[in-house]
Amino acid sequence: MKNITWNIEKLDELISQLSSMKPCGKTGIQSLDSMLGGGLYPEIYVLAAEPGAGKTTLALQIADRIAEFGSRKALFVSLEMSASQMLAKSLSRISALSPSLPPLTVRQLMNARQLSNDGKQAMMEALIAYREQTAPNIATVDERVTVADLRKLYESLPSAEFPPLLVIDYLQLLPPSDGDPSATDYQTHTANMRGLCKLAKTYKTPVLVISSKNRANRNGRQLASLSGSSEIEYSASCVLFLDVDGSTEDERAEEAAKSKRLVTLSVRKNRFGSCGEVPLVFLANESRFIERCTY
């Protein structure tokens, strides 16, 4: 930086930016959208959870919702599951909305040849809905990519379009951009979070980063529970924890084994809004979350 531009010199520009700020799309979870000021903004959001809580399923549900109803498309980087498995999750969720046909599990969809006639009809209806409403506006990347790769991808997008929402599943599997084999996990996570933060700021798009929780605080809902670099909590505008309900480890394990799980989505950091908790039901066999107050 060579010169200082005083705020009075760019006040009109700043006011214009403020007046144009609006959500890029809603998550579809009404209580969460209220806490977030209407939905997702061009900022960094971190979603942390222990294994089995459904963090990938929730992130995909949000991405599909924005792809279908939001102002922009969605790019889902899946470093753990294949694109076909992610599609099965989406179809499972859609099939559960049919008033007359049976809902399909991910496993049933991955073994579609064994479906009953009703099951095949349910799959066909779900596929038609997905093809028409969601598929044109979402892309699933299931190959090994770096933040540098993603930055090049966003640079190549048409300037006339809003850059897509970016979902990273998940941070701890994201490789270093420089390919340095000697880099520690801490260094890699720090560099990747800074890179994702810069991407969100440069292209003015929401970035939803899924993170694991550290083993020592796996059941905690505090920022110290985030696994890896402290940069995760510092870079994020909003940090959410998804936890299976239960006061003891045994109770949580028992709840996690159910097909209908009581879980709580906790907003523990919200730079521009309120914090709080949203009680949810995770319908694991249907790959979807609903608010407990509507269940």
UniProtKB/TrEMBL annotation:
<dbReference type="GO" id="GO:1990077">
    <property type="term" value="C:primosome complex"/>
</dbReference>
<dbReference type="InterPro" id="IPR027417">
    <property type="entry name" value="P-loop_NTPase"/>
</dbReference>
<dbReference type="InterPro" id="IPR007694">
    <property type="entry name" value="DNA_helicase_DnaB-like_C"/>
</dbReference>
<keyword id="KW-0639">Primosome</keyword>
<protein>
    <recommendedName>
        <fullName>SF4 helicase domain-containing protein</fullName>
    </recommendedName>
</protein>
<dbReference type="GO" id="GO:0006269">
    <property type="term" value="P:DNA replication, synthesis of primer"/>
</dbReference>
<dbReference type="GO" id="GO:0003678">
    <property type="term" value="F:DNA helicase activity"/>
</dbReference>
<feature type="domain" description="SF4 helicase">
    <location>
        <begin position="18"/>
        <end position="295"/>
    </location>
</feature>
<dbReference type="InterPro" id="IPR003593">
    <property type="entry name" value="AAA+_ATPase"/>
</dbReference>
<dbReference type="GO" id="GO:0005829">
    <property type="term" value="C:cytosol"/>
</dbReference>
<dbReference type="Pfam" id="PF03796">
    <property type="entry name" value="DnaB_C"/>
</dbReference>
<dbReference type="GO" id="GO:0005524">
    <property type="term" value="F:ATP binding"/>
</dbReference>
